[in-house]
Amino acid sequence: MSGIRALAKGLSAACDHAAGWLLLALVLLNGASVFMRYVVGDSISWSEEGIRYLAVWITFLGSVAASWHDEHLDMNLFSELDWPVFQAFHRSFLHLLNLAFSAIVAWQGYIYCVLNGAQTAPTTGLPMIYIYAALALGGALLTFMHLVKAVDSALSARRA
What is the pTM of this model? Predict the structure, then answer.
């Protein structure tokens, strides 16, 4: 299990770095777009579309890293209970719920890639499979992360 956990940690770090670089690209593109529009008087025709697609990728890659580090917002009604076994099973249950949701996202993202991947974006001409792949890849990575976290939680319940 430690090899799988190391793989998940490495994938999380890679997604975190990729989301960071994409965020930098988004900020630079947005700054260049504002500069061109208001200083030069000419706009970058594809900047809004590019920013939107970068934001989609940042969302899905960043969610993988946030999930691995348990940084997602949650409303845990049972966090006050001081029962280690219950807490471990509760965390495992929550990860399994997230796993089910992210598996649906991955499945639907795959369907979008198959059905609509040949379309092109209106301004950039980019094949839409590159955009829809964010859903499929992000959902698959989230599914893997939550599977690892659910197993870890279940194993900690056995030790408690």
Answer: 0.87
